[in-house]
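Table 4 source record.
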Amino acid sequence: MLAKFGRRIAYKIRRKLGLKTIVLNGIKLTTDPQEVPLGVRKQLLQKQYEDQEFVLVREALSPDDKVLEAGAGIGFIGIACARICGQDSILSYEPNPAMKPVIEKNYALNGMQANLRSKVLSTTAGEVEFFFSEGVLSSSLVDRKHGGATRVQSDAIADVVEAYGPTALVIDVEGAEIDLLRGCDLDGIGKIIIEMHPHIVGEDKIEDLVAYLAGKGFSIKNRLGKSYYLAK
């Protein structure tokens, strides 16, 4: 109870100070309200942004891994991956054009350069319907009724996996994970860090996906809330 109270007070102080940057798990990130959506900024100031995914990435990855990231957000998890594997060993996809300058700024704040494709990673190449949310966190290939549909450029995950040759996947795609992981050859991939979204797709589809991955040789090594680390 005291720890929770202390975190609440610390958040209020950070918010009142109007901080433009914050250091989260050793990573410097912008909190400028002109750049970062309100919901994301609140989580950053609370120091709770993508904390479970961060723990699993640190547990799963090693310096010789090559990472393909789907759903880069503000770049936090990608930077965490790059610190382990090197910035040349991570390729990130983020379809929201508003996040591109934020991702690039956050990498620069940490002395890195993002290897970023401003497209959606999907099961098909070309152009797909994407649903943008003002809050960013709910933007998805799945219609969550948070915003209108927009046609965006897409790369097929099968093509990217074949050309890039990742050993690890890091995925946070707001429900689209159900189809995405069935859309590529997983033979060369040994690790998957993924945030599941049962509140979007239903528990049964999550169970089916885990069973599908088990059939491909993956087992759950760790789970924190909705975030999973699976490996062969």
